[in-house]
Amino acid sequence: MSALAPVLEAYFTERLTGQRQASAHTVAAYRDTFCLLLRFTEGQTGKSPYQLDLADLDASLIGAFLTYLETERGASVRTRNARLAAVRSLFKYASYRCPEHAALIQRVLSIPSKRTDRPLVSFLTETEVDALLASPDLGTWIGRRDHALLVVALQTGLRVSELTGLTRGAIELGTGAHLRCRGKGRKDRITPLSTKTRAVLRAWLAERSGGSDDPVFPGPTGSRLSRDAVRRLVERHVGTAIAVCPSLSAKVVSPHVLRHTCAMNLLRHGVDTAVIALWLGHEDLRTTQIYIHADLSLKERALARTAPPHTGSGRYQPPDQLLAFLESL
After folding, report:
1. 256 tagged catalytic
2. 291 part of the active site
3. Could you confirm whether 107 is annotated as catalytic?
4. How far is CA 125 from the centre of its chain?
5. Which fold has domain 126-302?
6. Which fold is adopted by the domain 4-109?
7. Is residue 286 annotated as a catalytic residue, yes or no?
8. From the candidates 92, 182, 202, 256, which is the catalytic residue?
9. Rounded to two decimals, what is the model's pTM?
10. Is 184 assigned a catalytic role?
11. 182, 184, 202, 227: which is the annotated catalytic residue?
12. Is 259 one of the annotated active-site residues of the chain?
């Protein structure tokens, strides 16, 4: 048994699940990272994973592993940084378990993350939302389920995991209609429901039936939908809606885009960013600032307030060429 194996095992059993109580998604992501790293290290050193020592995972090898992820596996910079975060977490834990490797650990921890481009968030316009909501076939059970899911996603801004984990007992359709969910970081929050969303959910839950612990949006077997299933159903209905609203063809619409659309709708109706952060379950208010950057209309209104006096409103439009010619005579 080498020094690495017991440290790695203790990291998962004691640190991640025992002390940090990491979610199953986090544990799975870190597990995949170290499976990739150990296989890569085996190819580089010729040692089986159980024979590796912590000293085998030096900064040069970790750097080569990150390069391998980007060049040979085609990983994005964000994925590369996420893998590096998992490695750093292990080495921070190892600094307490293996102080004799302090110098090696410090060199690994000093490997920097790569800076990434931050594109504007993608969201749907009102016309695109209407086309998307009209795409499910309400004459079928699956169509009615998908329509209810899309309505809830667009109005509440729930994450995919929150949508798939939503149960009947978490929805209150009486006075003060709302739903409860446990979001990222194990934070519970309550989101109010609009009149339209309440009506759609009431009709769907009457058809859905089941107990309070049953999922609101089940698959054909009655179990929860997977993340991939939600992604596929969104893509399917976007493909149908393109025939009515061609502008959708220029956008990559994922379930998270529906969350962005909810935030942009709140912002355009004058809701404060602090309230939007609470609505979406953001840990940091700065996360919500991305929606302000994406909304050109807000910037245009700000420009209008700073326009010189006695100037007309609106954006500049070039004159008609024919009229310009006649007026020049």
Report:
1. yes
2. yes
3. no
4. 19
5. hpI Integrase; Chain A (1.10.443)
6. DNA polymerase; domain 1 (1.10.150)
7. no
8. 256
9. 0.71
10. yes
11. 184
12. yes
Residue range 75-134, pLDDT digits in tens? 999 999 999 999 999 999 999 888 899 999 999 999 999 988 777 778 899 999 999 999
User: Is the model's pLDDT at 239 over the cut of 60?
Assistant: yes
Q: What distance in Å separates the CA atoms of residue 246 and residue 10, rounded to the nearest whole number?
A: 53
Residue-wise pLDDT for 254-274, tens only, equals 999 999 999 888 888 888 888
> Which residues 6+ apart lie within 8 Å of 265 measured at CB?
154
Q: Distance between CA atoms of 272 and 105, rounded to whole angstroms?
A: 44
**Among residues 145, 159, 198, 208, which one is catalytic?**
159
Contacts of 107 (CB under 8 A, 6+ apart): 58, 59
Contact status, residue 157 vs residue 280, Cβ threshold 8 Å = yes
Boundaries of every domain in the chain: 4-109, 126-302
